[in-house]
Amino acid sequence: MPTIASSLAEHTSACPPGAPRFVVQKHWASRLHYDFRLELGGVMKSWAVPKGPSYDLRERRLAVSVEDHPLSYNDFEGKIAEGHYGAGRVIVWDKGCWQPLHDPYQGLGAGRLAFALHGHKLVGAWALIRMQPRHGRPAGWLLVKERDGHERPAGEFNLVDALPDSVAQLPDCPAPAPLLSRRAPAGFAPP
Q: Where does the signal peptide begin and end (predicted)?
């Protein structure tokens, strides 16, 4: 059985033509959150991540499944008017392509979707893991970083604080990112 690291080694090149896209939109609605979206089945499967992604292996970020969005929404950056669902400012915080490390439909059904991201800020192996339902509420998900050489302790590097700005004007397909050193110099940030 392949490991995350060996599966990831197959998926670290630049985005191939037709590769499914991902986008993370930073959204100042009633509360700041990050809309994490993966292209699958002709739509953007979507999760709201209140604290945003983290490169720290110990941080499991709540990811609330929300309605699918059309592919055309990937480029949206602007303001959703008051009185409309999700009113507030939205920026394209990260974008790129993603590759499932296993069958994505089986992963979603089983509650563990493992994938590689190739973005400007998010790179390497990640997973969405479904939690057990509680008190009659639907099951939530967790967005977690997998061990692959890109991980960084939060005390060393806080991704959402260090890289708060839009990538909307950058290419849809970033150049391949080098593995991050665990002993990177102070102030070094992933691409």
A: none
Distance CA 92, CA 75 (A): 7
Q: Please give the helix or strand (H or E) that residue 8 lies within, else none.
A: helix 4-9
Q: How many domains does the chain contain in total?
A: 1
Q: Which of 34, 168, 27 is nearest to 92 (CA)?
A: 168
- Cα–Cα dist 15/176, whole Å: 8
* pLDDT tens for each residue of the chain, 191 residues long: 444 444 434 444 467 888 999 999 999 988 999 999 999 999 999 999 999 999 999 999 999 999 999 999 899 998 887 887 777 899 999 999 999 999 999 999 999 999 999 999 999 999 999 998 777 777 789 999 999 999 999 999 999 999 999 999 998 888 776 544 333 333 434 43
Identify the domain containing residue 75 by its residue range: 4-162
Name 165's Cβ contacts closer than 8 Å, sequence gap at least 6. 91, 93
Q: Is residue 147 part of a domain?
A: yes
SS3 track for 53-85 = CCCCCCCCEEEEEEEEECHHHHHCCEEECCCCC
Establish if 186 belongs to a structural domain: no
Q: How far is CA 108 from CA 65, 103, 112, 128, 137, in A?
A: 11, 9, 6, 8, 18
